[in-house]
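__Protein archive entry__

___
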Amino acid sequence: IWHAPTQSIFVSDLGGWGAARGRIWQIRKSQAGYSAHILYDQLKTPHGLLQHPSDGHIYFSTQTEIFKFDPNQPGSDPERVMFGLPGEIKTRPGARGRPRSENGVQVQGDPITKLNEHPLKHFIFDSTGEHIFINVGAPDDGCYNFAKPDQKCGIADYMAAIWKLPLREYTTPIADPQTGRPYDMSIIYAT
């Protein structure tokens, strides 16, 4: 939720897990009361929503992208600022997976080929507005699909982390879509 100084409240609505059912709403106050309008829909897990400290645009995140729009022209096409953030990550060959039940028998391994139990992206800007800090969630709660029992979870070196990037329009993906590993590891701010 972001309360803009223009008598509007902007709301990021996840819409549920799975299909692209998320929306960005604008709630306006008038003398007659409040009215709600959908600005953007069919978004995949929108979450973060924040006004930039200097350019005044409202930024919002989805599972793999960050967009911005002018609050004085709500509903106009949002401008994609960055893309290729880790979303659905493919499991590695040989990953042990979570125990599961098949016909009442416990077996090791998970047939799911994609997993990211924490895909939501929240973010903040630094005080100058020149950098964005993005929370990149862990792929799952225990690295089940990304490490063998006796190994360190290497994916935790870049997921379950805060990424710091210069705020600009990116024309190439930020991370490898197969692994979620950033192409530039120097963006890892904290793990």
